[in-house]
Please model this.
Amino acid sequence: MSQMTLSARLGRLATTPRVGARAVDAAPASANHGFRLLCALLVALTFTAVLVLNTVRAEGSYVLSRLEVEATALHDQKVTLADELAGKQSSEHLARAATKLKMVPSTSTATLRLSDGSITGVASKVDGSRTLTVDLPSTGTAPAKDD
Model:
């Protein structure tokens, strides 16, 4: 058969309806829409995930920078307090504070050894007409004043 007769015959077969034959599409259109919808959903979920991750990362960066500023301020405060404490612990400062409280240096000392309760040295009274009265917590009352 020649090319011409074959194409004419195929054309005639395609145009002549057969009894009990029906036309069927090779790919149904509904399956295409489902796949497209699935792809669009995946793309939307990916973009949403990226947006959420970037937002969380930006928030974490903000919190980190705020905490770094706070840590720097606390470090500065610690250094200032350490310097102030060192100044207050110095012997010169303690001597000035004792003088303000009208304390006088001791001429003799005694120490108590806690392990066995022994007393080493002799403590003597410091010259001065002032006396000191101490209210003990166990009594809870102030001592009677001499008029």
User: Anything to note?
Assistant: The helical segments are 3-15, 29-89, 91-100. The chain has a mean pLDDT of 79. The first helix runs from residue 3 to 15.
